[in-house]
């Protein structure tokens, strides 16, 4: 046991997971006891296309260090085309966030099917490692609420 | 303000071993709105459910949070529990602290902390939950079966037996599928035609079953209980109801050099043809790519000889629209193309054949009348080499990564039949592993080795080289650690099977999901093996994964049972978690309509009052809750924020984000 471990930076990571694929993939990685860090907190959405860019902005505003969106593989969307919309929306949003100073490594879209428990765990391990390396995120601020 | 109850499950030691359930319950009790918090060993057990119901009544709870296993496991259970206690079943939220917490984390402190945060997020969400009522939609009492092989036949017969109308759509001119091509079936060696053709006749005679042969499903719209399919009946240039199937036209047709698909291109058929003697429906079909009359208007022999007057060269493709309550996919399989396997010289020598071709060569109704002859010179082969796993279990990317499952058994069958019919032949089988799980399967394989003296050699064939009319087979014997060179007369390749090429377009049409190998995915790999995750779509046969005939038939009957279970219902409850448009905020821009994959959004002009005591007409969106499947694409597309998804509203997800990032 290392003593420094307690001082270690523990990032807050929000994962939006599609109910039909990656949420089930996450369950599968649980069933197979494939570990990934406890920093990852999953929010279940019916489809990756339900994720409003606003949710991601809100997460960064409230102190998230990284946000990952997991959906069905292209062509496999339960609702036929939802993941394509998600992909386009996130491409735009992530490039804007990058422009604002939130590194593009802090945001990610990943396709994980219901059968890919191992991929889910590997993805999360990798993502947490990347964010931990990047360190604490600068916080977006909602200046509308700020007292002058 | 909601009155929320929190129930933390131990799941025996599954959760309690890594999560301090007492601490979770105590911490969550401090959350705003939580009036009751407890923990129990098995929340899903009868006593656990009773505890929840009592708490709902005693504390007048308006919402409950269960910290337990995945909602995919027990959400439905706890919704029923809540409903039984008088609470709306959509006032239940589950915090997944087993699959996504206790099972993946080892550190108890971290896992407990995470469980508390997940609990908080669920509490934050349930604060914003609203009672939802599931609507109802009627069920059309008719089923569609796509594919008329043994899987489709069995499914259709079973559904029809229960008294429901069934339509079989088969793209070939006859039903029967691959099984009709097979000679004998393992492990009993009864002839495939003898057990299949009576079933085909049953289908034809059953008044509840309608066969659309030489037809394809063009499009499918709608949802469970209420699909609308358009079926394209391809022009066969023969009036189906007039043709008697006498076969005179096929004798007289001058175009005799058309490769015969039914015999795996090993012989020829005429341009007007009946695939095989027992075809159902027994109706001739004109191949438009071969018929002289259709290509350049010169011939017309068939119409002259047809006494029934069934030939109609002007026939056009016909489109039929039909409504269905359930759809069964039974699209079956094909053998893979061998372009990537040059080492076996399949394209260089006609004496290198696939197992399905070999099946036709052994078949009494096949091109050689059941006598095994080499395709090249029609002589009797004396040395045969069977190569297993050609393209199966291949991780190099040339073939398929999965086991095709049926090859070990049919190769044993082929080898055995060869030795039985022609005791003067030497038969070698090269294998990686012999896999014979199944009733009487291993006994069958052992008989091939022990009684019939088939040489089984563990090892793969490296190269097949045609030389002076023979095939030089280079192979390794792994157990003897030896290199072999066999002078063979014929080589039979146990070619991998893959889903039919139509499967992917059908899956897209049905919004059913597929795996990376294009096999249809089942709703649950163990507990719901014949249903697709898309409601109302069922899977039968090899379209779901490699299977032999007994397995296919049992799956086909299982799919039929599921379809019958659906069709006996008069009404179905719909998912109430659907999109909803706030007409006051909607500006009628059509952004939502464009992204909706189901066409659930329509626009109408509505009258609204203005602050100036006048009224104006505005174009606003409205969602058809029976058609909406609740994906939420429209909610994000809406620029004015008028669209929201019940059960996963913007505010609810935001509240979860806030609780997690706190």
Looking at this protein, list some descriptive labels.
heterodimer; A: 148 residues; alpha/beta; Rossmann fold; 4-stranded parallel β-sheet; 4 helices; 38% helix; B: 662 residues; FAD/NAD(P)-binding domain; 5 domains; 5-stranded parallel β-sheet; 18 helices; 28% helix
Can you walk me through this structure?
The complex is a heterodimer of chains A (148) and B (662). Chain A is α/β, with parallel strands linked by helices and 148 residues long. Chain A has a single domain, classed as Rossmann fold (3-Layer(aba) Sandwich), CATH 3.40.50. Chain A has helices at residues 22-31, 53-61, 82-100, 117-134; strands spanning 13-18, 40-45, 66-71, 107-111. In chain A, strands 2-1-3-4 form a four-stranded parallel beta sheet, with helices on both faces. Chain A is globular, with a radius of gyration of 16 Å. Chain B is α/β, with parallel strands linked by helices. Chain B has five domains: 4-127, 3-Layer(aba) Sandwich (Rossmann fold); 142-234 and 317-332 and 500-567, FAD/NAD(P)-binding domain, CATH 3.50.50.60; 248-305, no CATH class; 334-498, 3-Layer(bba) Sandwich (FAD/NAD(P)-binding domain); 579-646, Alpha-Beta Plaits. In chain B, a hairpin with a 2-residue loop joins strand 11 and strand 12 (226-233). The relative contact order of chain B is 0.10. The model of chain B has no long low-confidence stretch (mean pLDDT 94). Chains A and B meet through helix 1, strand 2, helix 2 and helix 3 of A and helix 4, helix 5, helix 17 and helix 18 of B.
